[in-house]
């Protein structure tokens, strides 16, 4: 890959091709990458499928943001737009996130003669990611060991597979129990009550319904335990109906979107990942 990139004496221009623009873990990962890449070594453009608070955040970080449709079967207009963007901005490397973005970046990168790196944010590759890798000769970056061995098992070229685990900034996130934080005060949770938390997008793949069914069972043996559901998403009404149906309102609280996650974590005794 390095042979196709500009020499170290000039900045490398990276085009981040992002397959969604909601509030989510992938988007947060992209924003933190853009925020922390050293500007003396890299310049950045971002291609997103639509305008949103996420694109506003990226512009606030100093990135040039462009919009084009990114369906799983990309239109020629999107491919043409990506190719023109590569040429106009003298892009050196494309970095994609999610399978639809990988497909667009793979096609555009192959046409423009530029290397493509795809970050796989899940626990395994999709069939589309594998097909694009094979067809467009892209490089893959996975964020967990399971993805790494899954990729090897289905035939990804080891020379084009890179494992870099997701990290946590331990200067920001550290155990610091607060007995009377704003969420406990908001919902009248006693200082000595245990709080179990779910943090994530309220969509099927994240399993918030699994979390609520767990809360229903725990209530029978530990009635003082409280549950916080932090996030927003398409399952919000369904979860609210479940809470009403089983009279969980005194026990389970839908917190909504929160921005100060270190403060939220400090109020939670047990954090649950119910993601599929």
Describe the structure.
The chain is an alpha/beta fold. The chain has ten helices and eleven strands. The protein has helices at 25-36, 53-60, 76-88, 99-112, 127-136, 145-153, 182-186, 208-221, 236-245, 261-266, and strands at residues 12-18, 42-48, 64-67, 93-97, 116-120, 139-142, 161-163, 195-199, 226-230, 252-256, 270-272. The strands form two sheets. It has a seven-stranded parallel β-sheet, sandwiched between helices. It has a four-stranded parallel β-sheet with strand order 10-9-8-11, covered by helices on one side. Helix 3 (76-88) crosses helix 4 (99-112) and helix 4 runs parallel beside helix 5.
Please give a quick description of this structure:
The chain has 276 residues and is an alpha/beta fold. The chain is built from ten helices and eleven strands.
For the structure shown, list the relevant keywords.
11 strands; alpha/beta; 276 residues; four-stranded parallel β-sheet; 37% helix; single chain; 10 helices
């Amino acid at each position: 890959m390095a042979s196709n990139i500009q020499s170290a004496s000039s900045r490398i221009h990276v085009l981040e091709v992002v397959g969604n623009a909601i509030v989510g873990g992938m988007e947060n990962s992209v924003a933190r990458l853009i925020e922390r890449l050293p500007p003396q070594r890299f310049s950045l453009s971002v291609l997103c499928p639509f305008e949103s608070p996420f694109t506003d955040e990226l512009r606030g970080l100093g990135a040039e943001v462009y919009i084009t449709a990114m369906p799983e079967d990309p239109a020629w207009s999107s491919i043409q737009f990506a190719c023109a963007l590569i040429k106009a901005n003298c892009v050196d490397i494309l970095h994609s996130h999610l399978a639809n973005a990988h497909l667009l970046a793979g096609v555009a990168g192959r046409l423009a003669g530029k290397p493509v790196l795809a970050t796989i944010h899940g626990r395994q590759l999709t069939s589309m990611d594998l097909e694009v890798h094979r067809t467009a000769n892209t490089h893959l970056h996975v964020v967990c060991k399971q993805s790494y061995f899954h990729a090897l098992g289905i035939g990804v070229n080891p020379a084009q597979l890179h494992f870099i685990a997701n990290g946590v900034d331990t200067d920001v996130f550290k155990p610091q129990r607060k007995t009377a934080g704003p969420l406990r005060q908001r919902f009248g949770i006693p200082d000595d009550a245990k709080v179990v938390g779910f943090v994530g997008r309220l969509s099927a793949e994240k399993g918030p319904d699994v979390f609520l069914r767990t809360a229903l069972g725990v209530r029978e043996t530990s009635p003082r335990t409280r549950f916080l559901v932090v996030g927003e998403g398409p399952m919000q009404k369904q979860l609210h109906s479940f809470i009403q149906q089983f009279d969980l309102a005194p026990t389970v609280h839908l917190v909504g979107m929160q921005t100060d996650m270190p403060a939220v974590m400090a109020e939670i005794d047990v954090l649950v990942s119910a993601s599929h």
